[in-house]
Amino acid sequence: MHWWLLLFLALSCEGLQERELLELELDYGLAEPQRTSMLQSSLILQFAQDYKHIPRITYFTCQKPHSQTDPVPSAELRNAFAAKNVQLIKSLYESELFVRIVLLDVLAQAAPSSGRRPGSGPSGGFSQTPSQAQSNSEWLEGVLRMEALKQIAVVDLACGPVSRRFLELASAKMLYSENFHWLLIEDFAWHGRTQAGEGTAKGEEEPPGQQIQATGDEDLPSIESFLGGMNLYMNTELTLAKRMSEAAHYTLFDVWNPGLNYGGHVNLTEIGSFTPSEGIQLHAWFRTTSTVRRRMDMQHARVRCMVVVTNKNMTGTLMYYLTHTVSGHIDTMNRFNFNLLMAVRDMFNWTFVLSRTTSWGYVKNGRFDGMIGALIRNETDIGGAPIFYWLERHKWIDVAGRSWSSRPCFIFRHPRSTQKDRIVFLQPFTNDVWVLIVGCGVLTVLILWFLTTIEWKLVPHDGSALIKPKGGAPPRHNYQHQQHQEQVEAPVRPITAVSVVVDEEKIEEKGEENDDSAPIDAGTLWHRCYQKLNKYIKDRKAKQKKSPERVGLFLESVLFFVGIICQQGLGFSTSFVSGRCIVITSLLFSFCIYQFYSASIVGTLLMEKPKTIKTLSDLVHSSLKVGMEDILYNRDYFLHTKDPVSMELYAKKITSLPTTKENEADEDEPVDPNPASTDPAKSYRDIVHSHETGAHAKDSAASNWLDPETGLLRVKHERFAFHVDVAAAYKIIAETFSEQDICDLTEVSMFPPQKTVMIMQKNSPMRKVISYGLRRVTETGILSYHFNVWHSRKPPCVKKIETSDLHVDMDTVSSALLILLFSYAFTIMILGTEILYSKWQYRLIIRLN
Fold first, then answer.
1. What sign results for the dihedral spanned by CA atoms 791, 792, 797, 803?
2. CA-to-CA distance for 119 and 123, rounded, in angstroms?
3. What is the DSSP string of 104-127?
4. Where is this region: Disordered (predicted)?
C-alpha cells in the first residue's frame, strides 16, 4: 500500500476519535512502516498534550532514513516517512498545536555514513532547509531558540548518523536544559532488530533506578552508550521511547546525568509505556514525585565551589575554617552560606572541590574579578559566598535563593547632650517659660520700685524711716538726725572731721552756686566749650545729690528679685503693707519655680538621655568622628552611590579632602546637591579617586578605614561612630563593653539591610538543585539553627541606677563655667572703665579748680 492510500484513509475518517482511528488502521493489516508512522504520531501527540502539556513541538526527521538492513533507503521507506509527517501535521493541526518539522539532511555532510548530497528529494512543502552558507551551529541556533515558553523537541533516531550528529550539536550548545523537553524515538521497524530486555511484560512496573543494558551495534553505538557522552544534567528533561518488538508498544525511559563535567554517569530509568489503546501509562512512583526529588542521588559528583575569605590571619585548612566557629565574627556571612551549602550537598550526595578568593566580584578595568569573575570564566561552578544582587551582575550569573541578611550600620555611644543652641542650665524650662519668668521679674521690680519710692517720700526727716537699708536708716537721714541732737545737747562743740567736711561741702556748694550764677565770659572757642562742659558736670552732680535715693531703690529692687530667685536673703526691709505683700508674693513665686526647676534637674539625671542623632544627616552634622569597616562592599558603595548625604559624609568625615585650591575655600561647607556653577558628583568622584583605586583600595593613611576590633575599641573610649555589620559587632561588644556602655549605644543605618543570594554560573543546571535544597533547609529549621550559631545576638541593655549615673560630667557644667568666666571678664572690663572714668573726672576737676 502506498503512502497516499494511508493519507486518504486518514482524511476519510475525520469523524472518528484518534485512538479509534489508529486501532482501525492497525487492524487493516497495514505494512510495518505505515503502522509505525501512525503509532509515532499518536505517541508525539499524547506526549505533548497529556503528559507535558506543552503546545509547541519541533519534530526533527529526515528525507533519507537510515536502516541497518537497508543502508540506502528504498522508495517505500521514503514514502512511509512522508506519510508519517503528513499524519503528524494533520493530527497536530486538529489539536490546535504549534508544530514545526525540521529536516536533518543538512547535517549529512558531518555524518560518516552519509553518501548523498544533503537536501535532495522532495520536501513536501513543510520542511525547513537552512542556507548552505550557515554553519551547523548557526543553523541549530536558528531552529531551537531559547525562549520564555517551554517547547518539545522530538528526534527520530531512524535518521541514524544524522540524528546522532544533531544530538551532539545540541549537547555542545547546552540545550538539554529545562527549557527543552526532549523525546527520542527509537523504533524496531526502522532498525530491524530486537533489543535485550524485551521480556518485560507490558504494564509491569520496575523499581526506580533499574537501568537498561544496551547491546552493541556494528555500525553505530547503542543510544544508551551514546547518551553517556552527552552534556546531560540534573535539570535535563529527556525521555527515550523504545519499541522493542513488532507489538504496538513503546517503553519510556527517563534519562539524566548528574553532570558530565562533574564526573557523573548517565542514568536510564524505566518510567512507563505507551500503547494506542491505553496511551501513556506512567508508574505510580514517577507520577507522585517531582524531577528534583527523583534525582537526589548525584553519585558523589565533584562540584567546584569558590568561597570568599577576607581573614588574613586564617589558620588551619580551608574546610576547617569554614565549618568551625573559631573567630565566628569574621567572614560571618561567607561561612554561614557555606554551611547551608553543605546541608544541600549532603541532601543530594555530591562533593566539593574548594577554592578561595578575597573578593566577591567587582568591576575592575572593565572586567569582574573575584568569585563572579571565576564563574564567568568557567573556573568554578557555584559560589560558596553570598553576594548582593545588583543589576549589573544580573546578566552574568544566576541566583538560586536568599541566604544571609546583612545589616551594616553606624554604631556609637550617644553623647549626653548634643544641643548647641541652648545652655544646659536653661534646658529644664522651655523658652516661653523663661520669657514669662523674666516678664514677671520686670513687673515685680517696677512695682517694688514704685512702692519703695512712695514710701521714701512719706518718711519724716526725723529719722523714723519706714524703709531701711540693711544695717540701719539711710546715711543722709541718720546724719541729719545726729546733727539735730548735737545742736540741742551741746551748742558749743569742738571742731571735728565731720564738721570740717560739712563746712567744706557748704563752701564747695556755695562756690558752685557762685560759679553757676557767673556769666560765661567771651573768649576763644576752646574756652567756651570748656566752660559749658564744666557747667554740665556741675549740674549733673547737683541732680545726683538731690535724688540718689531713686536710683538706689531701683537697683535694690533688681537685686531683691534676683536674690529671691536664687534663694538668697533680702537686702532691705519695708514697713508698708503693700511692700510686704509684693515681697511675700515674690518669695512664694520663687519657691514654686525653684521646686519645679530642681525636680526637673533631678529627673533629667535619672531618666534616659534623649537620642538626638537619629539619621545619617544628624550624624554628619554632629561632633562625632566617623570610621568605616575596611571591607570591599563599603568601598564599592562610595564609588557608586548618588546619595548626597553619603557623599557629604565621605568627604567630611571618612576621608580628608585633597589639598587643592578649589577645596581650600569651602572644605567645611556642606555639599550642595544643586549647585549652579559646579557639579557635586564630579567633585565627589575626584575626592574618592584621589584616595581610592577601585573597590580594592587599601591605602588608609588619610582616612578612617579600620578593622572591627579597632573601630569598636575607639567607639568604647572616644566620641566615635563606626560603620560595621552587626553580626561582627555584637560579638565584640558583648565581650568588651560594660553594661552601661551597651545601654549608651545607638545605631544609624547608611543604607537599608541588604538581602544576599547564592549564585552560580549563568544557565547552570545546579540552580534548581540549590533552590530546592535551600527551601528544604529552611522548612526543616537548619537555616534557623545556623543563623543562631553564626549571627551573634544583640547584647541586652540591663537598666540599673548606679552612682555614676547621677554624676554631672564636664559637658553639663561647661556652660555654667563659661558663664562664670564671662562674668569675670565682664567685671574686669567694667572695673577698668570705672577706674579710667574716675581718673578722667579727677583730672577734669583739677583743671577746673
1. negative
2. 8
3. GGGGGGTSTT--S-TT-S--TT-E
4. 112-132, 196-217, 659-680
By C-alpha distance, which of 793, 796, 790, 794 is closest to 329?
Answer: 790
Q: Report the C-alpha gap between 641 and 41 in whole angstroms.
A: 60
For β-strands 705-706 and 382-383, DSSP reports them as unpaired
Per DSSP, helices labelled H in 718-781 are 726-736, 739-743, 766-779
Give the chain's radius of gyration (CA, Å): 51
Contact 620, 654 (CB under 8 A): no
For 837, residues 6+ apart whose C-beta sits below 8 A from its C-beta are: none
What is the helix (H) or strand (E) element at residue 711, kind and residue range?
A: helix 708-717
Owner of C-alpha cell 533629667: 604
Return the amino acid letter for 793.
R
Contacts of 75 (CB under 8 A, 6+ apart): none
Question: Which three-class secondary structure state does DSSP give residue 592?
Answer: helix
Residue 694: the pLDDT is 41
Burial of residue 781 (number of CB atoms within 10 Å: 0-12, 13-18, 19+): exposed
Question: Which strands make up the sheet holding 180-186, listed edge to edge?
Answer: 127-128, 98-103, 56-61, 151-156, 180-186, 237-242, 250-256, 267-275, 279-282
Decide which of 3.40.50.2300, 3.30.70.1120, 3.10.20.30, 3.40.50.300 is the CATH code for 3-197+225-294.
3.40.50.2300
Could you tell me if 166 and 173 are in contact, meaning their C-beta atoms sit under 8 angstroms apart? no
Phi-psi region of 129 (alpha: psi -120 to 50; beta: other; left: phi over 0): beta
The CATH number of the structural domain formed by 296-407+754-795 is 3.40.190.10
Helix 708-717 × helix 726-736 angle, to 10°:
50
Q: How far apart are CA 613 and CA 420, in angstroms?
A: 13
Nearest-10 Cα torsion for 419, 420, 421, 422: 70
- Of 562, 569, 593, 591, nearest to 445 by C-alpha is 562
H or E stretch at 467? strand 467-469
Query: Nearest 5°: CA angle at 409, between 404 and 411?
Result: 130
Locate 338 and state its grid cell: 557555606
| Least confident stretch, 6-10, 656-660, 770-774 | 6-10
Pairwise CA distance, residues 341 & 758, whole Å:
9
Residue with cell 548552505: 132
Residue found by looking up cell 537497508 in the block: 70
Tell me the C-alpha distance between 153 and 124, whole Å: 21
Residue 545: pLDDT over 80: no
- pTM for the full predicted model: 0.68
For residue 101, how many C-alpha atoms fall within 13 Å in the half-sphere facing its CB? 22
Residue carrying the nine cell digits 565627589: 684
Contact criterion met (CB below 8 Å) for 708 and 329: yes
Please give the mean pLDDT across all residues of the chain: 74
Closest alpha carbon to 2 in 68, 63, 65, 74 = 74
CA distance 52 to 376: 33
In the predicted model, is pLDDT for residue 772 greater than 90?
yes
The three cell numbers of residue 438 are: 523674666
Q: Among the residues of 607-699, which ranges form H helices?
A: 616-620, 632-640, 644-649, 661-664, 680-691
Q: Kindly give, in sequence order, each residue whose CB lies less than 8 Å from that of residue 226, ignoring residues fewer than 6 positions away.
A: 164, 167, 220
Q: Of 221-235, 252-266, 511-525, 809-823, which range is least confident?
A: 511-525
Helix 782-790, helix 332-348: angle, nearest 10: 150
> Is the distance from CB of 707 to CB of 630 less than 8 angstroms?
yes
Cβ distance 280 to 274 under 8 Å?
A: yes
Instruction: Answer for the pair 127, 89: CB distance below 8 angstroms, yes or no.
Output: no
400 in helix, strand or coil?
Answer: strand
Question: What is the rounded distance in angstroms from the CA atom of residue 605 to the CA atom of residue 806?
Answer: 6
Nearest Cα neighbor of 260 from 302, 214, 293, 220 is 302
Residue of 104, 90, 94 lying closest to 136 (CA atoms): 104
